[in-house]
Amino acid sequence: MTTSLMIANRQTWFGAGSINQLIPLLEADPQPTLLFSCRSFLGGAVHAGLAETLALLLVGTETVGHEASPRDIDQWVARWRGKVRRVVAIGGGSVLDAAKAFAALVEHPLPTLRYMEKVGDSRVSGATLPVIAIPTTAGTGSEVTQNAVVTDTRVNMVKASLRHNNFVPQVAILDPQLLAGAPDRVLAYCAIDAFTHLFEAYLSKTASALSREMSLTGIRLFLEAWPALNRDDDAREAIMQASYLGGLTLSMAGLGVIHGIAGEVGALRSYHHGQVCGRLLLPFLALLAESEQPRQRALMAGLAARLFPDRRDNPARYLLEFITRHAIAPFWRDDLPLSRRELAVSLEKSNSKNSLLEYPPAQRRKMIEQAFRIE
């Protein structure tokens, strides 16, 4: 039996209104605290209700408008080194990753690129400032993962992680009310990212009985939430739980070919990561529907028996139809071009990661061509 290690937050608050735990947490342990956030939260009603008290507990705020680049992180480190002892992150996955990367690298001497997977030449030590992570989207699960994703689409053309068990935020606050009012397309992009984490972790060759059970729970929550993301409090609560479980299971079991391709596309184009994963998920499900690989077939049969026992004939095809039929935003219809050079680069650099099968270049190419418009 495969064993796995689960690393999680020291404290996790969950439920409507749980963001109100933030002020007492900061007041209980006064420290120079830097806030990382986004314009949508800082301009919203929830922040307005906290702003007066929160401002007294902060030394400053950094606004994150996109996936952080190595240059962004180096600039933040130069500005705040020695002035901060704790970090609060309130926002989507890009905000949380930026805050986690900053919290770690402000405790390291070298520039960001030196520590990044794929391109770096130095190992992170694990030193980091404590992070309180409060997601305002439900997709990446960054509030409970060991990695901080850094993206440079302009200079080095790389999307990679800083990774250490110590980089899991000490505290996560999961408040489903923070999802209210998000645009339909953002809700859909993020939710499909959460599903892809759960699904790839379920099918991973390094998954354990524990991680697969957690993946199944998360997938069930996704299926319940997906059709009603934009209109139902129960759906928002379910998808936030699914996203959190996706973060846990991807950390335990790893991801597969979808993320093996998506990371390389993300290094070339500033497309929403969840949308990229969703676009690749659809041809992957079609490929999976035709798979004769015994272990894949057994796992899919087990998934269907647990989650939709009346539709066992072709579980992958059922998921494909369910996702497209019930989507609140048709994420697969937007025009997302890739040049032929970008196709070649993505194909060359991508891999199957922890998939049960090794997907050869021809199959990866087919997935890319079906997911994007090649110019």
TrEMBL record:
SUPFAM superfamilies referenced in this protein's UniProt entry, alphabetically: Dehydroquinate synthase-like
Fe-containing alcohol dehydrogenase-like C-terminal domain span: 188-301
Residue intervals of the Alcohol dehydrogenase iron-type/glycerol dehydrogenase GldA domain: 11-176
Pfam families for this protein: ADH_Fe_C (PF25137), Fe-ADH (PF00465)
Domain of life: Bacteria
Keywords tagged on the record: Oxidoreductase
Protein name: Iron-containing alcohol dehydrogenase
